[in-house]
Amino acid sequence: MNKDRMFYCLPQQAYMRTDNCQKLRKRPTGKVPAGAQPKLRACEGCTMYPLVDKDKVPTVTLTEYLGGQKPEIANLHSATNKKLIQAHLKEAG
Ligand code: SF4
Fold it and tell me: Which candidate, 47, 41, 43, places its Cα nearest to that of 21?
């Protein structure tokens, strides 16, 4: 995965850093230890992250983003992306 790039996270409707997406996903679900933050609901039900991991979402660099450029919004319903998502869900069981 290409770290330090910005993409548009559809479930959260927000621009996010790709490595932040990974970090958010590693958060615990349900009851969390004191001081820890639970996984966001958006990430729990998310089907977009396989595309982030596989570098299949449109991105801009952090520098470009700070300079005012915005990444395009991924199309989760394109045939290619649907296939990638399905393949990942199968792998994950
Ligand atoms: S796991 Fe999904 S909802 Fe969470 S930040 Fe990544 S793309 Fe967004």
Answer: 43
Residues 67-80 pLDDT 10s = 999 999 999 999 99
What is the chain's Cα-based Rg?
14
> Mean pLDDT of all residues in the chain?
92
Distance 64 CA to ligand 1 centre (A): 21
pLDDT digits (tens, 9 = 90+) for 34-58: 888 999 999 999 999 999 999 999 9
Cβ 39 under 6 angstroms from ligand 1:
no
Q: How far is CA 53 from CA 21, 58, 75, 82, 88, in A?
A: 9, 12, 15, 14, 10
Q: Which of 54, 55, 50, 70 is nearest to 8 (CA)?
A: 70
Ligand 1 site-directed mutation target among 21, 44, 51, 84, most atoms within 8 Å of CB = 21
